[in-house]
Amino acid sequence: MLVLAAVSDLQYQKLRNAVAPDFTLARAPTWDAALETIRGRPVEIAVVDPMLGGARGQEVERLRVLFPSLPLILYTPVMTAELAPVLLAMGKCGITQVVLSPTEDHPDRLRGLLSEEAMQSASQRLLDQLTTALAPLPAELRWVLEDAMRSPGAVQTIQQVAARARVDRGTCARWFARAGLPSPRDILAAARVLYAHRLLKDPGFTIEDVAKRLGYAQAKTLQQHARKYLGLTAGEMRLSLTADEATARIVQGFLTPARREAANVS
Asked: What SS3 string covers 111-127?
C-alpha cells in the first residue's frame, strides 16, 4: 500500500524505519510534490506535517478540500504555542489522527496508525464489498486479486494473475469458469472502474488524472470500461452514482453468476 509522506527528512526516516516493508512510502518534500504524487500515483494514506515548508496548516486544509476521501495523519514536532491553533483548525476539518515527535512517534505507534487507516482505505472497502462475489475462488487466487486491487493497474491480464498465483494460464481460467465468474481481466477492469468512481468523487481529480493513476495509457480506455461495466461515461458515473450503487451495479449485473446466465439467455 502506497503512503504519501509530506514530512521532514528526520520524520521520513523514522516513518520508513517503522512501517517498511508493510507500506511503501512516496516522499514529497514540498506541497506541490504532494499534489503531483496524489494525482499521479495510487496513494491510499497521507502522512503530512502541517508545518512543512513554513506552512501553517493551510496546505493540509487544501488537500482535505481537494481529496476528501484520502485519509490524513498529521505528523509534526512537539506541541508549541504556534502549533496549537493549527491543530485546532485541523480538528475542525475532521482530521483527528495526530502524532507528535519525538514524544509519540514510537515505531509501534506509527505502524499501528497506518494499519488502522489501511483497514478503512478505498481498496480495502472495495475488497470488502466484493468478498461475496469472489468467495467461490480458491484462496490463493483470491489473495492475488486482493493484492492487485490494492495496486490498481499493476495486474491486468490472466497471464499476470496466473503467474502470481503460481499456476498455468489454463488452470487459472478453469478456476474462474468453475466459480461462474468472468475472466480475471474483466474482474480487474471492473474493479478499476469502481476505484475510478471513488477517485472521481474527489474534486481534486480530473478524468485524465484518474486514468493515469490507474495505469490507463489513454483516458478513453477508462471511458470505454466505464460504459462497459457501469453503462455510464466517467463523467456521468461521477455525478449519478454513490459508491454503494456503483458496486451493487457491477456485482449484481456482472459478477453474480445467476444474473450473468440470465442475461446470456435473454
From this structure: HHHHHHHHCCCHHHHHH
Domains of the chain: 2-118 (3.40.50.2300), 122-265 (1.10.10.60)
Angstrom CA distances, 168 to 173, 180, 184, 189, 226, stand at 9, 19, 13, 21, 30
Half-sphere CA count of 103, side-chain side, radius 13 A: 6
Q: How far is CA 252 from CA 135, 181, 192, in A?
A: 14, 12, 17
Phi, psi (deg, nearest 5) at residue 41: -130, 160
Q: How confident is the model at residue 123, as a pLDDT? A: 66
φ, ψ of residue 44 in degrees (nearest 5): -105, -30
Count of beta carbons in the 10 Å neighbourhood of residue 262: 10
223: its cell numbers: 471511458
pLDDT digits (tens, 9 = 90+) for 216-245: 889 999 999 999 888 898 888 888 888 778
